[in-house]
Amino acid sequence: MTVAELFPTLRRLTRVDKLRVMQFLVTELAREEEPTLESGATYSIWSPLNSHEAAHTLAQLLESEQPKPNA
After folding, report:
1. For the purposes of burial, counting CB atoms within 10 Å of the CB of 43, is it exposed (0-12), middle (13-18) or buried (19 or more)?
2. Were 17 and a residue from 7, 13, 43, 66 both cysteine, which residue would form a disulfide, CB within 3.0 to 4.6 Å?
């Protein structure tokens, strides 16, 4: 069945059923977007722990900001 064939049927649905169809489609799209994790697999995760370069960059940024006078 093509999308063009679905449209007339979808138009005849009640408001509640149209919302259910939308919820179904959004759930399906979200599931396709989510990365799948395999059981027993090892995944690397980035952590800021021991990220001295990032800490130095942040410190420079904070030092470079000029204090704003209170209005």
Report:
1. exposed
2. 13
Q: What is the pLDDT of residue 46?
A: 78
* C-beta separation of 54 from 48 below 8 A: yes
| Nearest to 11, CA basis, from 21, 24, 25 | 21
Query: What whole-number distance in Å separates Cα of residue 65 and Cα of residue 3?
Result: 55
pLDDT digits over 4-53, tens only?
999 999 999 999 999 999 999 999 998 888 777 778 888 888 777 778 88
> How many Å apart are CA 51 and CA 33, to the nearest integer?
30
Please tell me the pTM assigned to this model.
Answer: 0.46
Assigned token pair, 17: 């059923």
Neighbours of 21 (CB within 10 A): 14
